[in-house]
Amino acid sequence: MKIKIIVPLILLVVFVGVSFQKIQNKPVLYIIGDSTVQNGSGKGADSLWGWGSFMNLYFNTNKIEIQNHAKGGRSSRTFITEGRWDSIMKTIKKGDYVLMQFGHNDGGELADTLRARGTIKGIGNESKDIYNPIRKVNETVYTYGHYMRKYANEAKAKGAIPIIVSPVPRFKFDDKNKINKDQYGVWAQEVAKQTGAYFLDLNTMVIAKYEEMGPENVKNFFPKYHTHTNEAGAIFNAELVAKGIKDLKKSELRKYLK
Description:
The chain is α/β, with parallel strands linked by helices. The strands form two sheets. A five-stranded parallel β-sheet has the order 2-1-3-6-7, with helices on both faces. Helix 4 runs parallel beside helix 5. The radius of gyration is 21 Å and the shape is globular. The relative contact order is 0.15.
């Protein structure tokens, strides 16, 4: 009688243990970036959101975990110097993914007393030694390309798959109702080629849709100023990110989309 009871219990424990292990071992999609990727400033018509906050709408989260580590105000440099990338490196594993979008804040000053978050323009190997008045330390600042290569190469070294995303465009139409392509988007694509990372040209994709819609319609996505979208605009951009991932024919991340 005891055997009849114990055996099913053992089988149940084994089954639960295996199921738990499968859940624990599911891949993680890490998302890193600035406020256009994660913002979330409350509710209401004027609330501001980033596209990364809505990627769960397009992925099967029973099969892949989504972690949005993006933080407002960060550049490709300060996301590293604040230790945010190091914290991801402690948990990232083989088979995980890193979706990265930086550029909006990289054009700032290198050593001003307000933010000190800028990077040297371009993708070369230039560097500059500065005193950082915010962190109160001496710091060597590198190019945008240097930091983006660091993300991609270190992710690959862990067995993870990097996907570089060109920055989502600002609401800036010219007198011909056109939006200029972001230079950081060009550099992002070049870094993807250098590192062998996947590239998702969100800048070009969104520009095409915005120009099709026209400025009068697109302005409804921007309740305050030209950089940050509301919830509707963030979901609009998130859908295009999902479409871009679906079009990455050689990426296994596609299979986790709904």
